[in-house]
Amino acid sequence: MTVFSHPKLSDLEEAKKVLTVEIQGLEALRTHLDASFSEAIEIMGRLQGRLIVTGMGKSGYVARKIASTMASTGTPAFFIHPAEASHGDLGMILPSDAVLALSYSGETKELEAIIRYTSRKGIPLIAITQKSESALAKEATVTLLLPSVPEACPNGLAPTTSSTMMMALGDALAVTLLTKKGFSKEDFKAFHPGGDLGNKLKRVKEIMHKGKALPLIEETASMEEAIQIMTTKGFGCVGILDGAGKLIGIITDGDLRRHMMEGLLHKTVKSIMTKSPKTITPDAILEEALHLMQGSITILFVVDEKGNPLGILHIHDLLRIGLV
User: Fold this and answer.
1) Whether residues 22 and 162 fall in one domain
2) Per residue in 272-282, pLDDT tens?
3) In this structure, are 159 and 50 located in the same domain?
4) What is the DSSP string of 207-231?
5) Is 0.70 surpassed by the pTM of this model?
């Protein structure tokens, strides 16, 4: 066996070389995209059934990820193992479905049963392959060709750049589809009720404190009264209301420290408050609240469209559900 020697690189240099090659592959893929991509989107967009994604080996692992991404972004999809397809799983593919098959060579033997089945049943077959003259490409309704670029593997054998391009192309298909369908954050939340994603997509009104818990006082009140409310309510702040009940300011523990030596107790809250505090609406998602709290802000009052306070949200509420 012939052993090829390569210039000795440090670990970091080797890693950067791999990433450079794969980035070049993605750049080539972006340039290589043509009208066949739009044809594939058209087929997937009008599906009445599911998108069946399949592939063997490394392509199979990529296919599983694509199916998962599609399913979570509004396109019903699942993975079928090509070897199992010829042992009964072909029955899982319905006439209303379409098949997305991945094979770099386009000659994967295990795909033959699925290719013949889609042809016989008139089921749309979308191929992702690098070989335009392969059996898969010739039988496909639409073929998404990968550009011919080197693998990042120094022997040119292990699927690296090719699998990265397949994965990225799957993401491009999924994101284009969700955009075309108008798939919203609310839709995404419905498919991701658990974990960090589910928490980020909850609405402020789901966890805000409201009613008698709110630390509020009128603008004509004294600071002595304000401090009593701050102490009782335990949020480290008090919201200031004008005569119409609209939130016009806020006083925090920090404001107390800054004005402690200025005859604080005898002043009105209006003279001490910070005007026009940052607020959030009850229908905003918690991810937006987290963004507003970047920096030194730990409290957000929740207001309606007129500026009337409906609730309050503390950074500790986000900590409690694991968002911070």
Assistant:
1) yes
2) 899 989 999 99
3) yes
4) H-B-GGG--EEETTSBHHHHHHHHH
5) no
